[in-house]
Each structure stands twice: as structure tokens, then as C-alpha cells.
Amino acid sequence: MNSKPDSPFPCRSWEMFLSSSELSTCCRRGWTSILMSMHLSLKQTFEITEALLKERDKQAKWNGIPLLLQKLYEHSHPNSDFSQCQSILKEISPLLSMEAMVYVTEDRKAAQESSFPNTYTFDLFGGVDLLVEILMRPTLITQKKKQKISDDLIKDCLSILYNTCICTEGVTRRLAERNDFVLFLFTLMTNKKTFLQTATLIEDILGVKKEMIQLDDIPNLASLVSSFDQQQLANFCRILAVTISELDTGSDDKHTLLAKNAQQKKNLGPSRAEINQATLLNIPGFIERLCKLATRKVSETTGTSSFLQELEEWYTWLDNALVLDALMRVANEEAEQSSTESSDESGLANTSTRTQLPQSMKIMHEIMYKLEVLYVLCVLLMGRQRNQVHKMIAEFRLIPGLNNLFDKLIWRKHSASALVLHGHNQNCDCSPDITLKIQFLRLLQSFSDHHENKYLLLNSQELNELSAISHKANIPEVDAVVNTDRSLVCDGKRGLLTRLLQVMKKEPAESSFRFWQARAVESFLRGTTSYADQMFLLKRGLLEHILYCIVDSECKSRDVLQSYFDLLGELMKFNIDAFKRFNKYINTDEKFQIFLNQINSSLVDSNMLVRCITLSLDRFENQSDAKVAEVLSECRLLSYMSQMSMRMSFLFRLINIIHVQTLTQENVSCLNTSLVILMLARRKEKLPFYLRTLQQMEYTEKYPGFILNNFHSLLRFWQQHYLNKDKDSTCLENSSCISFTYWKETVSILLSPDRTSPCAIVSYIDEAYMDIDRDFSEE
After folding, report:
1. 663: left (phi > 0), else alpha (psi -120 to 50), else beta?
2. Which of 104, 195, 576, 698 could form a disulfide bond with 321, CB atoms 3.0-4.6 angstroms apart?
3. C-alpha separations of 174 from 168, 177, 463 in Å
4. Quick check: 499 pLDDT over 50?
């Protein structure tokens, strides 16, 4: 069909009259992007004659949507009565919500392959732009008397916009490009009646926005946040999570250090996420309220009416629809059970049962809230203002509060019919219960890592036990233990760390929690090695548990193995009692061989343990204590590492498995472990011997120069990477008990260009195989 010259849409009228099947064909041919990029103005769209729309509506299967939008346009002029708009939206809404239901309840892949003609038609005829204009009109009119839009009309507009976003490709991104609209949405959050719909739409929009929003741009942010009740604040955390986390450009560990360093050089100032974190910390009472939310008990929630209202409007909270679907199912089951048990009661009693909120639903509701709050606290704990956040969450007793919730909520026992999401099982990482546990463990890891506040994870009796361990060993108490404010530590018979150890030892072999549990406990030990901390954990059977998992259960998961090796390294480092316990457990050659096989199966995973054994052996060999001498002579592990051939084998492989272009945060530890081996050799004036042996091993492998050229490049990168970073250098120094000055000197000596120096790498590379001057850059 050709349009007339005076048509309001001269370029593309034929597209407007395609049938649904024809539209689907266009979509398959990639025309969707063309159609969507050629949106008519609202005025042009609604100048189409009513007769023409009616004529094509039935054939094209538009379900009357263009006609309804035309009526909506006519009743939404600046001076018109908005009351008619709502009745029109009530007709449109079911047509779109049906498709949104399909999207969230069917398999996502199948849903994405389906077509959603109603939402597509709604957007194609300007519906999205019209609703945005209706919502924002009061802010755009300069008249003294502003137009008032009812709460119900706002809710209907927001719900329809969200349904269109999830069903029609490109709508969310178009809305995200409108900064004025995004910031306007935040002003709607002041109204409790429209809060849920607004928060859901904002979260969806910010999730696809190319540039992170700046929280400072939100009008009256501090007063907005202070106006939220606790439930609103918890939901607001879902939005904050998008604004304070660095944009996801891939797994952190998988990004090369070269790429990260290059990015840091470009971004000299703080990122938007860091600026947003600082903005939140400046809001009075914000952290205190998050701590209260994170630690409140289920019985302290503000009642059921507000949550029941959320359930009635669950279709607007489609991101959590599967969770709410599970909640509704459990609610119905519990209501039916109660109804059966009281069958002789009146009908009124049964009606009452149906309106009560089941305890399981209360718990799940609280879990969903705590998930969001713990995530925000975890991100803030890892940010630039870490010390400020630490001080506040200690003051507001976050850790004792979580300790009190540990058994009843965080690590509660599941019933036989435990809640699981639609299409998932109890062990799925998407389960709210499991996600809460993982988020809790991540928080503990961030809280403990290299910070003296880690002792708040203990109770007063456990702190006294640490002091007693130090006194018995005749060593000074750790200052942080002495200075810990006892009013802020855990209450009850056990602290949070002890509770974690108990559940860790009971965890099934295939559990996904093992990795996170080990990481959380390891973070407690990180930093300057503390004999008292190690003995506290050794006395609770941690070493035997780890060895059981590595050797007897022959763990296969690479992630879990790495976390166990790292934890074992921190637990045993410089501790002769730990090596004695190790030898008692690994008491046969068969067990020891299994242990070695696990170590050698992946040096990237086990190199931190190799480093621990190397450092410990060096210290023990320089001690004249009879107990140490006895363990040195009996311990299989120390005897194994004392062999020069074994140390050289580890050194050769550690250098061989990494290259500058493939260095990541995960495997750079291999480079540092190789350096530790060579620094200890330098102390004993054996560095030339080690380099010469590496040269001989190269020739044996018939690849002369390969290892040493690679090592030379790695050390050049090491200088660039570490000499500009304070934190990394401190970590290296604390974990090895070797001054960072000695690290730097050793690297400089190894990189010396003097071919006559017996400690320079270039002295051991033949001229024909020399390849040390190549510039390394990300490839």
C-alpha cells in the first residue's frame, strides 16, 4: 500500500499495516531494528484515521491496541481529564501482562524465541513514548497549578512500561538513554503506593544503561532515602547494587593484569561506582539502617499487610516472579493443611487461615531482603572507604547480629519440602536460601580480610582463649586482640567463626558452599601470620577436615581444591605443630602420594601451599629447637620439599605455566611463589646454582632460552605492576615475612643487564636464544 503525499507518515506507512505473521517474518529477517529505529512522532502516529485502523486491526491481529492508544492520546493533552486515561489503560494492560507472564513462567530460551505481538504493537504505535510523556507531563508544565496524576494511573503506566521492556527488544535501552526520565523515576519513589513498580522499572533500566548513573544527580537523594521504611530501603538496595558495583566486563580473575593496568592508567580518578559509594556513606544513618535490616529477626518484621499487598501486585515484580511463585505455592499448601486440620471449624476460620501469612513465607521474604542488604554492605567493605565502613558496621553490631541469626535463618535446617524455585532444585545456586548463604560468606570474607576487626567474629571467651594460647607459647599477644572492644564481639556460647567451622565440617562433599566457607576462614588468617589464630583453628580440627577433603574424599572440584590449598597454607605456615598434625594424619605413603598428586595436578591451584611449605622449611632449618628438629626429620612433607630436585621441579613448572600476556589475579601468585624460592636461595648464596640448573633443565627439554626468557619478561612486568601499588606490596611482605625491599632488590639483581653477573638471568641465556627486549603489551 502506497501512502498519499499528505500522509502523516510518508516514508513507512506500509510497515504499519503488516499483519502479525508478516511482522514475525520481518523480525526473522532482521527488520525489527529497522522498524524500531523509524518510530513516528506521537502526533504522526495518532493522526491515522480511526476507520483505517479499524479496517486493518482485525486482519493484522492488533487486538485494538492502536485504537486504544489513539484514544489515550486524545485524552492526555495538557488540559485534558486524566480520569479517562486510566480506564483506557485498564483495557490495554491485560493484553500486555499476558505476554509478560509467558516470558517469566516459560523457559527463558523458549520465551525469547516466541513473538510478543501485543507489546510489539504497543511500542510500534508509540505507546511507550506516550506513557513517558503522560508520567512526566506535570514536571514539564510551567503553569502555577500543576496537573495531578492519580497513583493508580502512575502504577498502570509503570506496569505497562515494564511489561513492554521485558517482552520487546530495545525498549529498555531506549528508556535508559533518557537521563531525564531515569532521574524523574526516582521522584516517584517517594510515594509508597507507586514505590514497588517504580523500583522494578528503574532496576531494569539501570541494568542496561551504558553509563552508570551518578547518585549525586538524583534530586534530594538523602531525604528520599530517609523517607523509606525498612522494606522500601531493602528493595532500594537492589537498585543501589547496580550503581556501586563496577560495570561487569567479564570475570575479574579472567581479565589479564596487562588489561587492568592499562585501564587504570586511563582512569586516573575514582570511578563512578566509587563516587556513588562515597555518596551513600555521606547519607546520615544509611549504614546503621542497613545493619538493622541485616540483623533483624523474622519476628521483628513490620507485619504482613504490606507484603500481602506486594503479593497481590506480584505481576509488577516480574524479576522475582519465580520466587513469589514458590512462596504462593507454599502459602497455599500451608493454608490447605491448616484448613484440613480445622475442618470442624466454621467457614470464617478457614477464611482467616487463607489471609494469614505463613511462617515459611515470612522467612523467605526476610531472606530476599537480607540478600540485597548484605550485597551492598559487602561491596562497600571492598571499596575505597573500607576503613570507614568497617568502623560503622562494628559500631552498629552487624557481626553479633548475624551471629544471633546464624542457626535460625542464615544456616537454618531445611524441611523435607524446602522452598525451591520453579524449574530449579534445592542445590541450585539460584535458590534464595543458597544465595543468602553465599552472600553471607562473601561478607565474612570481605570483613576479615587483612583487618583487625576480624576478631569481632569471636566471643569474649574465645578472645580469652587466644590470649591463653599466646601466654602458653610465651609469645606476645596480638595488639588487635588486646585492643578489641569486647562490647562489640559476638554474644552466646559460640562466635561466628566457630559456628562457621561447625557447619563447614558437616558440609556434604558435593556442596557448593565448600569453596566459600574455605575462603571465609582463610581470610581470617590472612595478613601477618598469627600463631594464636592458627592454634585456635587447629584445636577445632580444621587441618584434619581439610586433609580429609583433599585426600580421603579426593575432591575433584578445581575451585574447592584451590580454596583448601590456600587455607591449608595459611593454617600451617611457620607452625611446627601444624606440620606435626599433618604427619599424624598423612601417616602412610599411599595417603602422601594422593596428597602430592592433588598438588601436582594443578600448580596454579596449589602454589600458595607450595610457597607456605618452602617458607616454613627455610625457617625451621634455621632453628635449633629439639621439637622442630624432630618434626623436620619425621614429616614427609618437609622431607619431600627439602630435596633440591623437588624445589627445582616446582620452580621450573611455576615459571613455565605463566606468561605476561596470560597473567591474571588468579595465577600471578605463581610468579610470586617462584620469586620466594629464589629469594630464599639468594639468602643462602645459592642463586647462581638455581639459575644454572634452570638453564640445564631447558637444554634437557631441548628448548634452550625458553624458560629464562619468559622469566625475564615476567620479572619486568612484576616491576611495573607492584612498584606502583601499596596494597599488593604490603600483602607480599606480610604473607612471606620477607621485606618488600628484599623482593625489589632480588628482582633488580635478576634483571641486571650485566652478563658477567652470576645472579643475572641474561648470564644464563646464550646469545643465539636471547629474546629479552621484546615489548609486552596486551594481545
Report:
1. beta
2. 104
3. 11, 5, 56
4. yes
pTM greater than the 0.85 cutoff: no
Q: Between residues 492 and 107, which one has the greater pLDDT?
A: 492
pLDDT in tens, 288-298: 999 999 999 87
Termini Cα distance of the chain: 53
Confidence (pLDDT) at 75: 82
**Contact (Cβ atoms closer than 8 angstroms) between residue 275 and residue 216:** yes
What is the identity of the amino acid at 103?
Y
The alpha carbon torsion through 740, 743, 749, 751 (nearest 10 deg) reads -110
Q: Cα–Cα distance between 118 and 133 in angstroms, integer?
A: 20
Closest by CA to 640, choosing from 605, 609, 669, is: 609
Collapsed DSSP state (helix, strand, coil) of residue 592:
helix
Q: How many C-beta atoms surround the C-beta of residue 389 within 10 A?
A: 22
Q: Give 777's DSSP letter.
A: -
Question: Pseudo-torsion of CA 747, 748, 749, 754, nearest 10°?
Answer: 130
Map grid coordinates 506507512 to a residue.
13
Whole-number Å distance between alpha carbons of 197 and 96: 15
Please tell me what DSSP assigns to residue 622.
Answer: T
What's the CA gap between 237 and 766, in Å, rounded?
61
Instruction: Specify the pLDDT at position 750.
Output: 98
Please give the distance of CA 545 from its chain centroid, rounded to a whole number. 28
- The three-state secondary structure class of 256 is strand
Name residue 19's amino acid.
S
CA 423 to chain centre: 23
**Cβ-contact 16, 23 below 8 angstroms:** no
The packing angle between helices 398-405 and 496-506, to 10°, is 40
DSSP character string of 713-764: HHHHHHHHHHTT-HHHHHHHHHHHTS-HHHHHHHHHHHT---TT-TT-GGGG
Q: Is residue 92 within a helix (H) or strand (E), and if so which, with residue range? A: helix 83-105
pLDDT tens by residue, 677-723:
999 999 999 999 999 999 999 999 888 889 999 999 999 999 988 98
From the CB of residue 433, how many other CB atoms can be counted at a distance below 10 Å? Answer: 19
Cell for 144?
Answer: 502555577
**Sequential DSSP letters for 335-364:** HHHHHHHTTTS-HHHHHHHHHSPPHHHHHH
- Please determine, for residue 171, whether its predicted confidence score (pLDDT) is greater than 70: yes
Distance CA 197, CA 128 (A): 16
Q: What angle do CA 294, 299, 302 make, to 5 degrees?
A: 80
Q: Which of 77, 195, 65, 197 is nearest to 134 (CA)?
A: 77
Rounded CA-CA distance 752/749 in Å is: 5
* Contact of 603 with 654, CB cutoff 8 Å: yes
Q: Show Cβ contacts of residue 313 under 8 Å, excluding neighbours closer than 6 positions.
A: 155, 196, 197
Rg (CA), the chain: 32
**How far apart (Å, rounded) are the C-alpha atoms in residues 32 and 170?**
10
Residues in CB range of 212: below 8 A, 6 or more apart = 206, 242, 243, 247, 272, 273, 276
Closest residue by Cα to residue 204 from 246, 168, 152, 250: 168
Q: What CA–CA distance (Å, rounded) separates 660 from 716?
A: 9
Copy the grid coordinates of residue 756.
658477567
* Long-range Cβ pairs for the range 62-69 (8 Å, 24+): 62/20, 62/117, 62/121, 63/95, 63/118, 63/121, 64/91, 65/92, 65/95, 65/118, 65/121, 65/122, 65/125, 65/127, 66/121, 66/125, 68/92, 69/45, 69/122, 69/125, 69/126, 69/127, 69/130
